[in-house]
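Protein record

Derive tokens from sequence
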Amino acid sequence: MGGCGPIPWSAIDRYAERYGIDDLDEFERFRRFIRGQDRVYLERAAEEAKGKA
């Protein structure tokens, strides 16, 4: 039950704030990059979960 879920927007925002990504365009690029990487991770995790079921 449960499993992986996407990284919350609030976590991305906090990380960006901590590391000084405060320009809106930079933040949007960063957010898209993180979402893309997260999507790949979640797809692979789902594939592995299917193989173990």
Observations:
- The chain is about 75% helix and 0% strand.
